[in-house]
Write a structure and sequence with these properties.
21 helices; globular
Length: 470
C-alpha cells in the first residue's frame, strides 16, 4: 500500500486506512505530550548542565524550548493536513522523497530501540536501590510487562503512559511548591539561606561565561528528545483535529513550568555551586533541605521516567515498522495487526532486540556499549530535521494551491522552521566539538551506509514499486 493509498482510505472508527483503532482520548494524548517533554534528561542530566552553565541554564532551556515549540507547531501543521500513524516518515516520503521516508522511518525505529535498551537497563539499575536482585531479572520483567501491555490494546498503552506522566508531573510540581514554601516561609534546613539572589550572587547569572551556556545547548536539546512522540499517536487518536492541536499548544507552558520554573525554584533554594555532574539536582536539593526521603522519591520518579520511555519505545517502534512495511520499504509480515489493532510482529521484533540489548549491557557494560547508545541522540534529531523540511515544503505547495491548507498553521513559518533548522545544525556542530558527544556523529555515516545499501537492494528487487518513486 502506498502513501497515497493510506491517505485516502477512510473508514469508521479506524485510523485513516491503517487498520488501527482510535483508542487514545484527550486525557491520554495530553499526558503523552507532557510526558514526552519530561525524562531522565531533566531528573538526572540537568546536574551536569548546571555545573557547566550555572543559573544561565535557565536561559538555555527557555531558548531551546522555543525551538521545540517551533518544531511541534511545524509537526502540528502536517498532522492536521493528514493525520497518519507513520507521521514523520510519511511526511518525509511525501515532501522530500521515498529515500528520505525510508531513512526517517528506520532511523526513528532505531532511536527508540536503542533508547528502550538504555531505559529498561536503567530501570533495572534503579530497582537495586530497594532490593538486591540481579539486574537482568528486573530488566526481563519490565520488558515483558510493557510488551504485553502494548499488545493488549492502544488504550492500555495510553493508560500506562498517563500514569507514568502523572508521577513525573506530580514530582516536579511538588518540588516547585516545596521550594516556594521554603522561599516564603523559611522552613527546612535551607530556609535560612534560600534566596532568589542565588541566581546571580555566585559569579553572576553567567558564571562560566556565555560559552559555558552555549555548550550546554546540546545537553538541553537531548532532554527534549521524544517530545515529538505525540505525532506518532495521530492515527490512533479519537479526535485528532481537536486533541493534537491542544496538546501541541501546551508545549510553551509545559517547558515554562517543568523546566524553567523548576530550575528557577531549585537554584533559588540551593546555590548552583552545590550541584555536580552525575547527581540529580532534585536529590541534591532534597539533601540541602534536610529531607532524607528525597533520594528515595527521586529514585522512584526516575524509575518511572525510564519505564515511560521504554513503554513509548514499544509503542512507536511497532508503528514505524508497520508504516515502512505498508509502503514496501520493510518486510510485509510487519503489516499484520492483532484483533485489537496493535502491530504484533513489529512490536515483538523490537521488544526482542531490547532484550538482546539488556544482555549486551550485562556482558559488556563498558565504553563500547555506551558509544553505541550515544547514537540515539543524533538519530532523534534527524526526526526533527525531517519534520521541519517537510513542513517547509508542504507550506510552499499549499501556498501555491497545489495542496489544501492545514487548519493548524505554524505561526511565523516558514521563517520559524528555518530558524529551528539552523539551531539544530548549530547543536550538531557543538556535538562535533565535544569529545564526549562526537562519537554519536561517527556512528551516523555507518548507519547511513547500511540504509543506502538496503534501499538500493529493495529497489532493485522491486523497481516498479511506487514506494521507490516520487
Amino acid at each position: 500500500m502506498t502513501s497515497s493509498k493510506v491517505a485516502t482510505d477512510h473508514g469508521g472508527d479506524e485510523a485513516v486506512g491503517e487498520g488501527y483503532q482510535r483508542g487514545l482520548g484527550a486525557r491520554q494524548i495530553q499526558m503523552i505530550a507532557i510526558g514526552g517533554a519530561i525524562g531522565t534528561g531533566l531528573f538526572l542530566g540537568a546536574g551536569k548542565a548546571i555545573s557547566k552553565a550555572g543559573p544561565s541554564l535557565i536561559l538555555a532551556y527557555a531558548i531551546a524550548g522555543l525551538v521545540i515549540f517551533f518544531i511541534m507547531r511545524a509537526l502540528g501543521e502536517l498532522l492536521m493536513y493528514r493525520p497518519v500513524s507513520g507521521s514523520f516518515s510519511e511526511y518525509a516520503r511525501e515532501f522530500i522523497g521515498p529515500f528520505a521516508g525510508f531513512v526517517t522511518g528506520w532511523t526513528y525505529w532505531l532511536f527508540w530501540v536503542v533508547t528502550g535498551i538504555t531505559e529498561v537497563t536503567a530501570a533495572a539499575t534503579y530497582m537495586t536501590y530497594w532490593w538486591d536482585i540481579p539486574q537482568w531479572i528486573s530488566a526481563l520483567v519490565f520488558t515483558v510487562v510493557l510488551y504485553g501491555a502494548n499488545l493488549i490494546s492502544v488504550k492500555l498503552f495510553g493508560e500506562l503512559e498517563f500514569w507514568f506522566s502523572m508521577v513525573k508531573v506530580t514530582a516536579i510540581v511538588g518540588m516547585i511548591l516545596i521550594c516556594a514554601g521554603i522561599l516564603t516561609l523559611g522552613f527546612s534546613d535551607a530556609g535560612d539561606t534560600a534566596s532568589v539572589t542565588h541566581l546571580w550572587a555566585h559569579g553572576g547569572f553567567f558564571p562560566q561565561g556565555i560559552g559555558g551556556t552555549v555548550v550546554t545547548l546540546q545537553i538541553v536539546m537531548f532532554a527534549f528528545m521524544a517530545v515529538e512522540l505525540v505525532g506518532v499517536t495521530a492515527g490512533e487518536s479519537k479526535d485528532p483535529e481537536t486533541t493534537l492541536p491542544k496538546a501541541i499548544n501546551t508545549v510553551p507552558w509545559r517547558i515554562a513550568v517543568f523546566y524553567v520554573g523548576a530550575l528557577v525554584m531549585i537554584l533559588s533554594v540551593v546555590p548552583w555551586t552545590h550541584f555536580k555532574p552525575g547527581v540529580s539536582p532534585f536529590v541534591a536539593a532534597f539533601e540541602q533541605m534536610g529531607l532524607g526521603v528525597g533520594a528515595a522519591i527521586v529514585n522512584f520518579v526516575v524509575l518511572t521516567a525510564a519505564l515511560s520511555s521504554c513503554n513509548s519505545g514499544m509503542y512507536s517502534t511497532g508503528r514505524m515498522l508497520r508504516d515502512l512495511a505498508l509502503n514496501g520499504q520493510g518486510p510485509r509480515l510487519f503489516t499484520r495487526l492483532t484483533k485489537s489493532g496493535t502491530p504484533l510482529l513489529g512490536t515483538t521484533f523490537s521488544a526482542a532486540l531490547m532484550l538482546v540489548g539488556v544482555w549486551i549491557n550485562y556482558q559488556w557494560p563498558g565504553d563500547a556499549f555506551e558509544k553505541v547508545v550515544s547514537f540515539a541522540t543524533i538519530s532523534g534529531m534527524w526526526a526533527w530535521i525531517m519534520i521541519l523540511i517537510s513542513q517547509i515544503r508542504y507550506r510552499a505547495k499549499a501556498d501555491r494551491g497545489e495542496l489544501p491548507q492545514s487548519p493548524f498553521k505554524a505561526p511565523g513559518a516558514p521563517y520559524t522552521s528555518w530558524f529551528a533548522l539552523l539551531f539544530i545544525f548549530g547543536v550538531i556542530v557543538l556535538m562535533a566539538l565535544d569529545t564526549e558527544a562526537r562519537v554519536s556523529l561517527y556512528c551516523a555515516p555507518i548507519w547511513a551506509l547500511i540504509l543506502g545499501v538496503s534501499y538500493r537492494m529493495l529497489r532493485s528487487r522491486d523497481p516498479e514499486n511506487a514506494a521507490f518513486k516520487r
